[in-house]
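Students often ask why we bother encoding 3D structure as a string. The short answer is that it lets us treat folding as translation between two languages. Here is a chain of 57 residues written in the first language.
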Amino acid sequence: MSRFADLKGFVDGLEDDFNKFYEKGNKAAGTRVRKAMQDLKKAAQDIRVEVQSKKNA
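And here it is in the second language, the structure alphabet:
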């Protein structure tokens, strides 16, 4: 369950940059959001692999 808490905390930490980008049009915040989404994608893939290996064990 700690992986879930890590993901949740990661997404919650992005709220400020999302607001800066979508509400204020801050382009640098958009870059940070894109990078964070790529990191989130990688973390999600790692979790998928872990779950699959535990399921098949």
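Translate back mentally: The chain has one domain: 2-56. Keep this in mind for the problem set.
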